[in-house]
Write a structure and sequence with these properties.
Layout lengths: L1 H19 L3 H4 L7 H13 L2 H16 L4 H18 L1 H22 L2 H9 L6 H14 L4 H18 L4 H18 L6 H14 L6 H8 L4 H16 L1 E2 L2 H10 L30 H28 L7 H6 L3 H22 L5 H13 L2 H20 L1 H8 L9 H16 L2 H19 L5 H22 L4 H9 L4 H30 L3 H18 L2 E2 L3
Antiparallel strand pairs: 1-2
């Protein structure tokens, strides 16, 4: 009887939704365009079922785009939006890269390499704080690409942080909040070419003679959120203090549970038969060599593809940042992950640790461990397709209003970028939408002598807001990949990271953009003030994990 009542309730809800659902003309670039992503995000956080939540968001948006019809919208989820998301070559590259890296980790684990790494790092990472600092440091050092950073750091450090009773949520946070902030600021990274090209096009459209690379360099000190996010992760890792949901997760981990009892990790290596046998030698280099292979192959590949692309255009340059900016990161990541998997298999077989059949079986189990993450990624990309069709970003940009004082443009742009990135789950997409709008707005509104300074600050605001929204959003691909690499429940990762990310965003506004706009506070005072507030916050609001 109870199930009958529940089914009847679902039917009544669907009938009510069908009655009020608008068609595409009314939904596009209106407040209705916000409903699908907000529904998916709210349900995911409330009920901790990210797959169902994302599917319902995609379904609702698909119905709006298909004339407000829920029945046909249900079919459009798979035959239009999911298919379009998977046709994207970059998305397929991420899936294949994740599968290959998952296979590599499977072979490394089965051959005893990951336990060997734990043994080597044991004398160095002797406490939870040192283990977390090692994860933070690795996240900062692998600065050339955020995807590579996320998967390498998460998979490499998970056995170490598990051994020292650090929660999976904390590891996922350290992975997620060092990857994009480092990559977006590094002068040699896969982000640099994209950022400078967007800026160059926007300056050209606005009729400005400013050099885009020079403006980008000038914008780095104003990238308050990425810089402060790195400080927050560092203080959180070395202080032994946390607050909010992260404190509860860390105290649970110290009691012996690195994941909550109800957690559903996006990738689960422990329960998939990938743990090495007791008699298998635990040799650290069976994990270190494949990881170094991935890093080295990525760096070499970025150089070769970037140089080849520039030569094809007739450009001869020795500028390393420009070469990396012109590279093909997705192709390079495929090369690197395939080489890493191959090296892991060869090492295991040559030493007699695994037969070729066992090594391939471990690789396939590593592939399988990524299945849930790939489903979530596909649904997240599908929701992004729906938001694109509904013109969600255009509505949010238009809602800001055209009447802004020039000095307040960076603060307003940061806020809009954060909301757009949160709703759409993409930092690069947000930058592509806002940079061509925000830069000409500054050029039109501000006096010519202020152009360089205000454009630089506005570009930093677009960048910072995009990264912040991306960090907070459950539908972001990098957030999903951080959960996957850390073998963490995705909703638990978002829920524990959100307060820390919001702290960084509020400080970016309150200590950075607003004082600079209203009181001309110089940036060399804003950043130290932000660092001081972060340290004070952890000592006043935070509590020792181990009391």
């Amino acid at each position: 009887m109870r199930r009958l009542v529940q089914a009847l309730g679902v039917v009544l809800v669907l009938v009510a939704v069908q009655a009020v659902l608008p068609g595409p003309a009314a939904a596009k670039a209106s407040w209705w365009s916000l409903v699908p992503p907000l529904l998916a995000i709210t349900l995911a956080l409330a009920f901790k079922d990210v797959i169902l939540s994302l599917f319902l968001g995609v379904w609702l948006g698909a119905a709006m785009l298909d004339g407000g019809n829920l029945a046909s919208g249900f079919l459009r989820v798979v035959d239009t939006h999911m298919r379009t998301a998977l046709v994207n070559s970059n998305h397929i590259s991420i899936i294949v890269f994740s599968l290959l890296l998952g296979g590599m980790v499977g072979v490394m684990s089965r051959s005893g390499g990951t336990l060997g790494i734990v043994k080597v790092l044991e004398p160095l990472a002797t406490t939870p704080a040192r283990a977390q600092f090692a994860a933070w440091l690795m996240g900062v050092l692998i600065f050339f690409d955020d995807y590579a950073n996320t998967l390498i750091v998460g998979t490499s450090m998970r056995p170490v942080t598990d051994r020292h009773k650090t929660s999976r949520e904390k590891l996922a946070y350290l992975v997620d909040s060092t990857a994009a902030p480092v990559a977006c600021l590094a002068l040699v990274s896969t982000w640099i070419g994209y950022e400078v090209s967007l800026l160059g096009d926007a300056l050209k459209a606005g009729g400005s003679p400013l050099n885009p690379f020079s403006v980008f360099l000038s914008s780095i000190p104003y990238a308050f959120y990425p810089l402060l996010a790195l400080v927050i992760t560092l203080v959180s890792s070395v202080s032994g203090r946390d607050w909010g949901p992260m404190l509860a997760a860390e105290r649970r981990a110290r009691a012996g549970e690195v994941s909550a009892a109800t957690a559903r990790p996006l990738a689960d290596y422990e329960s998939s038969g990938l743990v090495a046998d007791e008699e298998t030698p635990k040799r650290w280099f069976n994990a270190a060599i494949p990881v170094v292979t991935v890093v080295f192959a990525t760096l070499v590949g970025l150089f070769l593809t970037g140089r080849g692309a520039l030569r094809a255009k007739g450009v001869a340059t020795v500028d390393l940042s420009r070469i990396v900016g012109a590279s093909d990161p997705f192709t390079v990541l495929l090369w690197a992950s395939l080489l890493g998997l191959t090296v892991a298999i060869i090492l295991a077989v040559l030493q007699g640790l695994l037969s070729l059949r066992d090594a391939l079986d471990a690789a396939v189990k590593g592939f399988a461990s990524m299945l849930m993450a790939i489903v979530v990624l596909t649904l997240a990309w599908s929701l992004g397709e729906v938001c694109g069709g509904l013109e969600t970003a255009r509505y949010l940009v238009g809602a800001v209003g055209p009447h802004l004082a020039p000095a307040l443009i960076p603060a307003a742009v940061f806020t809009v970028a954060a909301v757009v990135s949160f709703a759409t789950g993409t930092s690069w997409g947000t930058m592509a939408i806002l940079t061509p709008l925000a830069v000409p707005l500054v050029l039109i509104s501000a006096a010519p002598q202020l152009h360089h300074h205000l454009v630089a600050e506005t570009v930093a605001a677009v960048l910072g807001g995009s990264v912040f929204g991306d960090h907070c959003s459950p539908i972001s691909d990098t957030t999903i990949m951080s959960s996957m690499a850390s073998s963490c429940d995705h909703v638990d990762h978002v829920r524990t990271q959100l307060p820390y990310a919001v702290l960084g965003a509020l400080l970016a506004l309150v200590v950075g953009y607003l004082p600079e706009a209203l009181f001309n506070v110089p940036v060399f005072l804003s950043l130290p003030a932000g660092v001081g507030v972060i340290v004070a916050w952890f000592w006043i609001v935070g509590r020792p994990v181990e009391s």
